[in-house]
Amino acid sequence: MGSLPFSCRVPTGGAFLHVIKSESTQRRAERQGLSPRSALNQDDLANEMEDVDFDEEAIQGAEEQAWETEEEDEGVEDGMEAQDDSEVTFSEHSASVFCVSLDPTTNTLAVTGGEDDKAFVWRLSDGERLFECTGHKDSVTCAGFSHDSMFVATGDMSGLIKVWQVDTKKEIWSFDVGDLEWMEWHPQAHVLLAGTADGNSWMWKIPSGECKTFQGPSCPATCGRVLPDGKRAVVGYEDGTVRIWDLKQGSSLHVLKGQDGHQGPLTCVTSNKDGSLVMTGSVDCHAKLVNSATGKVVCVFKMESAASKPPAGEAESNSVESLGFCNVMPLAAVGYLDGTLAIYDISTQSLRQRCQHESGIVQLLWEDSAAVVYTCSLDGAVRLWDARSGKLISEYRGHSAEILDFAVNKDASIVVTTSGDHQAKVFCVQRPDR
């Protein structure tokens, strides 16, 4: 899995999650008596909003769900099985839980953020809340710990970012950037980066707040990742372009556009362990492998959809939702909205395995020291796949709605998931080879 589960991974990438969050904005607009279009287009609206009161029936339903025990929770949504393999359930959110991250030093704490405008830091061992990250007035879509677990950052859709000191549980810094697309901590320093809907990427020293901006095209900076050397970042944009930035100089080292870029908005970007290769994914269903030193496209991974083709005149609904590199073999994984997990051999630039899910993949992660891929999907299940053989190792269920994000601890013994069922769950992973 490399650095993926241990940096501030924000699930803002992915066509499916953008739809989910757009629907969240529309619901908020309806509660405010505004048209969805005005809610999406007015830059200052989020700052003018006051706390939103949910109707009493919705509040009562959410409270009842939060206090249900696992034995009592026999109701399921959308026909999902009432099976719960989890060890711990965190139920203090009252709406969809969008993001989760684990503290990288001990892997004993989680931070989750949700559509209820709330973020919580809590213990994995028993689900006990340590503190709430208060003050957000929009859906919290970004949350994660600094590299040393000293700080935790939370960001909401309106662009309000807050940083908290974990041991004192106190807020130490906040900033409002406008509509937030992604956020990530620097892998070696108390430096926070974020991308916004106006195309800018931001970088702050924490807690001083010293700031630098990286101006992109006049369209959303949809996804970003700090490269392992800590000196560069790769950012993808809605217009299909990709930029590799020099963080110290504030200048773009490489710009990929036209045929080198994508023919649709970027959904996700990642790098291999040493940062020599970058991989980009888009709604155009292509994943591109890029040499980060030269900015040249090494190869393009294309996957024919396993699902039936849409009728003539209708748009193709498939897209790349998540991707990642294996640390122990020259393999890359790409997850698609049609449920395809494709394992590519980087050495031969060819498809090695194709693992089919019954529903769309939302996120994937590699295990740090094995050729094992973890996936979460719209059917509410977490699956472990052997990338060498393409065979399913194990499957874990417990959610009654789609999984929206997940994280894996360092030794790959625990998986933490968040879901549209308003819950976060902790699963203990049993592997026959361990």
Structural write-up:
The protein has a domain at 9-27 and 84-215 and 403-433: YVTN repeat-like/Quinoprotein amine dehydrogenase (Methylamine Dehydrogenase, Chain H, 7 Propeller). The chain contains 4 helices and 32 strands. The protein has helices at 15-32, 36-41, 45-48, 56-66; strands at 88-90, 97-102, 109-114, 119-123, 129-132, 140-145, 151-156, 160-165, 170-176, 180-185, 191-196, 200-205, 211-215, 221-226, 232-237, 242-246, 251-256, 266-271, 277-282, 286-291, 297-302, 320-325, 331-336, 340-345, 350-356, 361-366, 372-377, 381-386, 392-397, 403-408, 414-419, 424-428. The strands form 8 sheets. It has a 4-stranded antiparallel sheet with strand order 1-32-31-30, with no helix packed on it. A 4-stranded antiparallel sheet has the order 2-3-4-5, with no helix packed on it. Strands 6-7-8-9 form a 4-stranded antiparallel sheet, with no helix packed on it. Strand 3 (109-114) and strand 4 (119-123) form a beta hairpin. The longest helix has 18 residues, at 15-32. The protein starts with 14 loop residues before the first helix and ends in a 6-residue tail after the last strand. Keywords: Cytoplasm, Repeat, WD repeat. Residues 21-59 are annotated as: Disordered.
Q: Can you describe this structure in just a few lines?
A:
Residues 325-403 form the Anaphase-promoting complex subunit 4-like WD40 domain. This protein has 434 residues and is mainly β. Helices cover 9% and strands 43% of the residues.
How would the blueprint of this fold be written?
Layout: H1 15-32, H2 36-41, H3 45-48, H4 56-66, E1 88-90, E2 97-102, E3 109-114, E4 119-123, E5 129-132, E6 140-145, E7 151-156, E8 160-165, E9 170-176, E10 180-185, E11 191-196, E12 200-205, E13 211-215, E14 221-226, E15 232-237, E16 242-246, E17 251-256, E18 266-271, E19 277-282, E20 286-291, E21 297-302, E22 320-325, E23 331-336, E24 340-345, E25 350-356, E26 361-366, E27 372-377, E28 381-386, E29 392-397, E30 403-408, E31 414-419, E32 424-428
Antiparallel strand pairs: 1-32, 2-3, 3-4, 4-5, 6-7, 7-8, 8-9, 10-11, 11-12, 12-13, 14-15, 15-16, 16-17, 18-19, 19-20, 20-21, 22-23, 23-24, 24-25, 26-27, 27-28, 28-29, 30-31, 31-32
